[in-house]
């Protein structure tokens, strides 16, 4: 009630969430497994295991010694990029969220929001010094990672996700670079990419898949669909290839030089409760936690799929060939004929390896959308891809019959489970209007996720 009275709904949200958060999501109490499967609890050994894991994850055998762009004198003036304006700095600061953890420079983002005219001029001068020299301060390129569990019994490093603590001052120049290159990258991206783009989201991608399934069944045809899973896609990006793509896209010289230096100089370390690992040199992948990474990855994956699938595909809607539906690294391939789909996958594997990407056979699935679905024989490196009748795509269940019944039942069950976790709160003596708001926030959001993509039959309406 105090949070509501003071208008601190953010704190109320966090406190309410804690009521259903029974697990201790730290990783140090139970230890971690080494490469031989032995459980290690000694803190120094745990730190070493994490350091080795990060080194192996981001290591690249033939890491380039330099990502130098072409000499400045070979570039036309209008292709170098303009100076950073104070208005760009102000806009970047305004977009920063409050209360975020500090990076290696220990400068809170909230302090930057308090800068006056003099401070903004000094900061703009610093940004331009970095922009013109192409050299990043050490605090801007070193990142501290915090590990969080992905599942309850997380005993391996791979069972955790990491979040990066980046210096807020570094975020300012990254936001400026993002705004400058975003428009050019948007011009390259296809309409089938729904990830990390303004005005698009998971619901659009889910809706696209449902429309395609319904259209296929309406005209009594069949469609073979493959849900591709790339192994740690964001961590496998080849920097040399990325820089080549940025140049071909027409990104200004200063922007490309800054990005190349940022990637070459970056180092990471993992922070645990009782210590930190040593700094690890990165050799591949987009920078975790950086606002540039999503659009750089989108561009990278777009070029990969265009090169691999050019001239392939046989599924048409309105006279236009539809090959893929993409949401960041979630890729769906589709074709009417099984042999055509196999050819698309083979080509994608071949070109993907040139881009440093590998498919995960165990997590890649195939489905045939049909009134009478039959198994599809698709292979990746001579290994059979599993056929499924139902697949969870971006949190929503897609089935081979094109119906939403399974998804609706699943949503209702998840909403009931979420209600049970916080039942004491929802049935307490709190103000009724407040409880209604909490139900909308925690229960309705689960029950109705993707509801705008549902096609309801009479039986589905009864379930609801």
TrEMBL record:
<dbReference type="GO" id="GO:0071897">
    <property type="term" value="P:DNA biosynthetic process"/>
</dbReference>
<protein>
    <recommendedName>
        <fullName>Reverse transcriptase domain-containing protein</fullName>
    </recommendedName>
</protein>
<dbReference type="InterPro" id="IPR000477">
    <property type="entry name" value="RT_dom"/>
</dbReference>
<feature type="domain" description="Reverse transcriptase">
    <location>
        <begin position="129"/>
        <end position="398"/>
    </location>
</feature>
<dbReference type="Pfam" id="PF00078">
    <property type="entry name" value="RVT_1"/>
</dbReference>
<dbReference type="InterPro" id="IPR043502">
    <property type="entry name" value="DNA/RNA_pol_sf"/>
</dbReference>
């Amino acid at each position: 009630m105090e949070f509501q009275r003071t208008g601190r709904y953010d704190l109320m949200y966090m406190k309410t969430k804690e009521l259903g958060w029974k697990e201790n999501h730290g990783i140090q109490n139970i230890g971690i497994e080494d490469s031989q499967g032995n459980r290690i609890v000694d803190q120094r050994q745990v730190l070493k295991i994490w350091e080795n894991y990060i080194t192996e994850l981001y290591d690249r055998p033939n890491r380039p010694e330099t990502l130098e762009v072409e000499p400045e004198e070979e570039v036309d003036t209008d292709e170098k990029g303009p100076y950073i304006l104070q208005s760009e700095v102000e806009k970047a600061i305004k977009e920063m969220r409050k209360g975020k953890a500090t990076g290696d420079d220990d400068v809170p983002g909230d302090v930057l929001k308090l800068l006056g005219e003099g401070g903004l001029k000094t900061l703009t001068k610093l940004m331009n010094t970095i922009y013109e020299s192409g050299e990043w301060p050490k605090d801007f390129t070193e990142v501290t990672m915090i590990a969080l569990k992905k599942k309850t019994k997380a005993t391996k490093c791979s069972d955790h996700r990491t979040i990066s603590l980046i210096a807020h001052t570094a975020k300012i120049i990254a936001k400026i670079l993002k705004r400058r290159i975003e428009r050019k990258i948007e011009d390259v991206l296809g309409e089938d990419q729904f990830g990390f783009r303004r005005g698009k989201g998971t619901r659009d991608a889910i809706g696209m898949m449902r429309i395609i399934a319904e259209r296929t069944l309406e005209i009594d045809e069949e469609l073979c669909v493959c849900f591709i899973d790339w192994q740690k896609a964001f961590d496998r990006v080849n920097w040399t290839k990325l820089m080549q793509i940025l140049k071909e896209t027409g990104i200004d010289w200063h922007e490309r030089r800054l990005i190349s230096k940022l990637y070459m100089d970056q180092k990471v370390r993992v922070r645990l409760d009782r210590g930190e690992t040593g700094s690890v040199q990165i050799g591949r992948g987009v920078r975790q936690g950086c606002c540039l990474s999503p659009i750089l990855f989108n561009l990278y994956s777009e070029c990969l799929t265009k090169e691999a699938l050019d001239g392939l595909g046989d599924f048409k809607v309105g006279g236009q060939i539809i090959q893929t539906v993409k949401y960041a690294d979630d890729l769906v391939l589709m074709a009417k004929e099984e042999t055509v789909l196999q050819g698309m996958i083979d080509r994608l594997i071949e070109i993907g390896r040139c881009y440093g990407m590998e498919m995960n056979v165990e997590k890649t699935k195939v489905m045939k959308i049909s009134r009478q679905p039959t198994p599809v024989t698709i292979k990746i490196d001579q290994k059979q891809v599993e056929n499924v009748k139902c697949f969870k795509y971006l949190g929503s269940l897609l089935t081979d019959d094109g119906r939403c019944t399974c998804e609706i039942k699943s949503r209702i069950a998840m909403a009931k489970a979420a209600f049970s976790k916080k039942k004491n709160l929802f049935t307490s003596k709190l103000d009724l209007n407040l409880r209604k708001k909490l139900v909308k926030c925690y229960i309705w959001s689960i029950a109705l996720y993707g509801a705008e993509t549902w096609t309801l039959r009479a039986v589905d309406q009864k379930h609801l």
